[in-house]
Amino acid sequence: MTTDAEKFDQWGREWWNPAGKLFSLHRINPLRFEYFSKAAGVLAGKTVLDVGCGGGLLAEEFAKAGSAVTGIDLSPVAIEAAKRHSQESGLSIDYKVGSPLSLVKEQQAFDIIVCAEVLEHVDDLASFLKDTLSMLKPSGLFFFGTINKTIKARFFALFVAEDLLGMVPRGTHDYNRFVKPSILKQLLEENGVEMRELKGMSYDPLKLEFRISNDTAVNYLGYAIKG
Questions:
Q1: Among residues 108, 112, 133, 109, which one has the least CA distance to residue 184?
Q2: Residue 11: per-residue pLDDT
């Protein structure tokens, strides 16, 4: 898996600073976890793989819900931050530096696989998803959240979020890697996984908060099921 993970090596403890460079992740984390958990139903006892887990914000929520969580990321700095915070939180999470391909070799299978805010950082999305989805059990759930490849997304996710408001560090995203839902749907189907729902995650500048919506033109999330 080739990503621009090197960008995240510089952030260190920023992962768990809700007022720091990654504050927008802290804003959307409760929202996306609530959406994923409602779709999953009972999480206790489920095996969960968080691909591109970063500092572990989402992985910890699944662990708190009773899931057996594995988190992987290409950034050693992010994994170190994730390990440190999970220990401070008293949570047992299996964090590893690596890609889906490296984990495939361990022949593990998961009830739930999560790719949140990672698909837009991947060079070869087809290979990435092939490796990732091969580890999903039959009838398993695939949760995703990423950025659409639209002019509106280019304006809001790049110019407004990075340059104007500083919601994420400048240079975090590359428009060329943004993913159209139609492309994601096609790649999922090629791997025997059916997209079941697609929702938008919109930012309300007046309330300074994100919300689930039907507008998928910028950020979107959803889930799919393996046949």
A1: 133
A2: 66
Q: How far is CA 112 from the centre of its chain?
A: 13
Hey, what are 134's tokens? 């091969």
Tokens describing residue 46: 């489920």
Which sequence spans correspond to the domains of the chain?
A: 5-147+177-200+221-226
User: 105 to each of 13, 66, 124, 218, how far by Cα in Å?
Assistant: 31, 26, 19, 35
Q: Give 10-residue mean pLDDT values along the chain (227 residues).
A: 54 83 87 97 98 97 98 95 97 97 94 96 96 98 96 77 60 85 98 98 78 94 97
pLDDT at residue 196, rounded to an integer: 98
3 — alpha (psi -120 to 50), left (phi > 0) or beta? beta
Q: How far apart are CA 96 and CA 170, in angstroms?
A: 27
**Largest separation between any pair of C-alpha atoms in the chain:** 48
Q: Given 3.30.565.10, 1.10.8.50, 3.40.50.150, 3.40.50.720, which CATH number is that of 5-147+177-200+221-226?
A: 3.40.50.150
- Strand order of the β-sheet with 110-116 is 94-97, 68-73, 47-51, 110-116, 136-147, 219-226, 193-204, 209-213
**77, two tokens:** 């700095």
**Do strands 193-204 and 209-213 pair parallel, antiparallel, or not at all (unpaired)?**
antiparallel
